[in-house]
Write a structure and sequence with these properties.
CATH class of the largest domain: Alpha Beta
Strand content: 15-25%
Strand order of the largest sheet: 5-6-7-3-8-9
Number of helices: 19
CATH architecture of the largest domain: 3-Layer(aba) Sandwich
Distance between the termini: 54 Å
Number of strands: 20
CATH superfamily of the largest domain: P-loop containing nucleotide triphosphate hydrolases
Largest sheet: 6 strands, mixed
CATH topology of the largest domain: Rossmann fold
């Protein structure tokens, strides 16, 4: 077995009085695809910073193979000091790196390279930072929440890029679908130590539950042993004093073991429950041919929908498409330019806004939950002390007076949930509720929504969460058009024949006034050279075509096996679908290469 590119062993680190890492390990081999998972605050980001050398541990060793290059994507990229996004990305290149690749990645992520960092949104900053770490094609790529603030278009595009690069990758993410697609091994950081599963994230949760159940069995055995020894201590024969003393010492050790075990038990789960309001009428929302524009920008055009009691409706589309605007139109917060919206009877709405804007940064956690009056919260008609309600959402009692501005992103997310769920409602409006929440909290939120008796409107870029939660999806179709599809996100993709990202790529490649087709450029004079994107595509096309040909031959050989269909019909069908997809991608790749090659010859000829 080849030695690892990077190895962390017996890593210990303490912040304050509590140890964060207590013997954690991490081994990264060439080309590996690892996901690093654990609760919020378990030390995942810290472990990656130790891997980069940015943080020095209290104890333990770090080994990196000579000449190995490492690039790290932090949760909060810092672009200060750079005039443009292009300058920021190019500053991350080493001598000999291809500058065309940097420009290509920027363009493929929806940036031009001319944007001023001070004017960027969170999603645009994240895209620029991704281009910076991907452009050098390092040996090791460490990605801390790469999908944060990205829309479905960017997430699916990033998946395609990461599938093709040769770098070893370690990913921290709360996006299940993203982890399932890319990971081949899982490292679980829990209570300061790491455990490794040599399978992708799809197998992690069942394995984790098995580990925790085994711990519980061992804890129960230890409790029984302590009871037995305590019984002996009280009623046993007291002859042979030395032996008795050893048993007494053993009892003390068992008690210490139990105390340590209780201290190291997995953190409690968030307890989510929602206040129920009066039942609405059967019709909750009916929109008839509504439209909304701002100047020449059409966000909603001629859209109609009926939402009945108990429906769970997801809304998907790229950033800037108008998802929040559509939500505001449907809930009556924003009047349409044309058309009408009728709301049902007895409607009581609880809202979780995307940017946590309803949270006052100067107000304490307790005051945010109580509205500033008293120390009690009314939940389902019963008065509860605010400290007890805080504990349901994993807040410590001492955080009651903590101002909102001092909370982490995950803590703000939990606080917003606590505020939203404390209000009686029969229509729950959640705008990006999964931001900054860990996987366990997402599980509980999903379970709560499944049992919620009211109606749900959900805006999310988390494809797995949509599949688990909604009964229909309203998808953006471009130019203000929205269409409702039955089922979750995967059902929508099956009905459309493509995802959101696929449609957006088609639109970027289509001739338009903003980006003319190659032949249209001749009207303003002959082309002098290929663009950086075209140069990169022309250079990389032969390798891509060869890889697609190899994959096509593999699938054809697999399908040629006469026993395959009899032994695994679902696998045979999946392989057939994969072959059709590869054949389509190969045809498109060959057509693109031919078009660019002809264009190159034409430019050289002139």
């Amino acid at each position: 077995m080849a030695p690892p590119l990077l190895l962390l062993q017996d890593i210990h680190l303490t912040f304050g009085s509590a140890p964060l890492l207590a013997g954690a390990e991490l081994s990264i081999g060439a080309g590996e695809r690892l996901c690093l998972v654990g609760r919020n605050g378990s030390g995942k980001s810290t472990l990656l910073k130790i891997a980069t050398g940015e943080i020095e541990p209290d104890r333990g060793s770090r080994f990196v193979q000579p000449s190995v290059t490492i690039r790290y994507l932090p949760q909060s990229p810092d672009l200060t000091g750079f005039a443009t996004t292009g300058a920021f990305v190019e500053a991350g290149l080493d001598p000999g790196d291809d500058p065309h690749r940097a420009r290509y990645l920027l363009e493929s992520l929806g940036l031009t390279g001319e944007e001023e960092p001070a004017q960027l949104s969170g999603g645009e900053s994240r895209r620029a930072a991704l281009a910076r770490v991907l452009a050098p094609e390092p040996d090791i790529l460490l990605l801390d929440e790469p999908t944060n603030h990205l829309d479905v278009v960017a997430i699916e595009g990033l998946e395609q890029v990461l599938k093709t690069i040769r770098s070893a990758i370690v990913i921290i993410s709360h996006d299940r679908r993203f982890l399932e697609t890319l990971s081949r091994a899982t490292v679980w950081l829990d209570r300061g130590i790491t455990r490794r599963l040599d399978k992708g994230f799809a197998y992690f949760e069942a394995w984790r539950d098995t580990v925790l159940e085994a711990e519980e069995v061992e804890r129960h055995k230890l409790d029984r042993r302590i009871v037995q020894e305590e019984h002996w201590l009280r009623y046993g024969v007291s002859a042979r004093r030395k032996r008795n003393q050893r048993r007494l010492e053993a009892l003390h050790e068992f008690r210490d073991q139990r105390k340590r075990g209780l201290a190291n038990r997995a953190a409690a789960d968030v307890k989510l429950s929602v206040q129920e309001a009066r039942e609405t009428g059967k019709k909750v929302i009916e929109a008839r041919r509504i439209a909304k524009s701002y100047g020449d920008l059409k966000l909603v055009a001629d859209f109609s929908v009926k939402i009945a009691r108990g429906d769970r409706v997801g809304i998907v589309g790229p950033n800037g498409a108008g998802k929040t605007t559509l939500i505001n139109l449907l809930t009556g917060t924003l009047p349409p330019d044309t058309g009408s919206v009728q709301l049902g009877t007895n409607l009581e709405i609880a809202t979780l806004d995307q940017r946590r804007e309803s949270l006052d940064p100067e107000t304490s956690v307790a005051a945010t939950l109580t509205g500033g009056g008293g120390d009690a919260v009314i939940i389902n008609g019963e008065s509860r002390h605010v400290i007890g309600y805080m504990k349901d959402f994993l807040f410590k009692p001492e955080q009651a007076r903590t101002p909102v501005k001092a909370l982490s992103g995950g803590e703000r997310g939990r606080l917003m949930l606590a505020v939203a769920l404390a209000r009686p409602s029969n229509l729950l409006v959640l705008d990006e509720p999964t931001n900054d929440l860990d996987l366990e909290t997402l599980d509980l939120l999903q379970e709560m929504l499944a049992s919620y008796p009211g109606t749900l409107l959900l805006v999310s870029h988390d494809r797995d969460f949509l599949d688990r939660t909604v009964t229909s999806v309203i998808a953006f179709e471009g130019e203000g058009r929205w269409i409702e599809y039955a089922g979750g996100y995967s059902d929508m993709v099956a009905q459309r024949g493509h995802g959101v990202a696929a449609q957006q790529r088609e639109k970027r490649l289509a001739p338009s006034a903003a980006r003319p087709a190659p032949q249209a450029e001749s009207t303003s004079g002959p082309r002098k050279r290929l663009s950086p994107t075209e140069q990169h595509e022309l250079k990389s096309s032969p390798a891509r075509i060869a890889a697609l040909n190899q994959e096509m031959r593999r699938l054809e050989h697999l399908l040629a096996d006469p026993d395959f269909y009899a032994s695994d019909r679902s696998g045979f069908a999946a392989a057939g679908a994969a072959l059709a997809k590869v054949q389509a991608e190969l045809a498109a790749a060959e057509e693109d290469w031919l078009r660019l090659e002809l264009l190159r010859e034409e430019i050289q000829g002139t």
